[in-house]
Amino acid sequence: MKTQRIRGFFLDAAREMITTEGVENFSVRKVAQKAGYSYATIYHYFKDVEELLAHTKRVMVEDTAKYMQAVMSTPPKNEAELQMLFTAYVRYHLEQPQVFRFFYFYKLPDHTAEAWDFSAMWRETLHFLVQSGTIEDEELETCAKTLVYTVHGLLTLYLSGNGLNEVTLFTELKKAIHYIIRG
């Protein structure tokens, strides 16, 4: 119980540091200070900084999922709701660009990387496309990956300052989602 509580202090401090300062400014000493412990104490709860970052990433993925569930508590039933869901996802990362950079630009060592199977989430999110006959069941994963890769590409272009302003970002997002699911 105490171990989980103290680990939670470190994870909260690490999440706050990444969210406000970015992973490039992350340090064990700063996390420990923010959590109210000496930096050596972290190593009683995490084997190394990479393990701390891997656990922090898991917590932040859960934060993202909670945010998305608050926006839409049920799976989308049509294109408009799917647009709303992806728009919320993009807005989340525009409000917290350091989270996006940590998720997609910071490479954790392979031994700490957690393999997440998103197929159940994709199946639930895009099930209405299969039900309506818009796509075949065997196309669902490809459609989902295409949507996700497109959204992440648009976010990368915007956050890097390479060619998209916010209006263009959301215009392109809407057009891309429509094109991908309608062909």
The value of Rg in angstroms is 19 Å
Q: Give me the count of strands.
A: 0
Q: Report the helical percentage.
A: over 70%
* Low-pLDDT windows of residues: none
Q: Please give the count of helices.
A: 9
Distance between the termini: 52 Å
Dominant shape: elongated
Mean pLDDT: 92
Write the layout of secondary structure elements.
Elements: H1 2-21, H2 28-35, H3 39-45, H4 49-71, H5 79-95, H6 97-105, H7 119-131, H8 140-160, H9 166-182
Write structural notes for this entry.
- The structure is a single chain.
- The protein has 183 residues and is an all-alpha fold.
- Helix 1 crosses helix 6 and helix 2 (28-35) crosses helix 3.
- The mean pLDDT is 92.
- It has nine helices and no strands.
- Helices cover 74% and strands 0% of the residues.
Core attributes:
single chain; 9 helices; mainly alpha; 183 residues; 74% helix
Structure summary:
The protein is mainly α and 183 residues long. The protein has 9 helices and no strands. The protein has helices at residues 2-21, 28-35, 39-45, 49-71, 79-95, 97-105, 119-131, 140-160, 166-182.
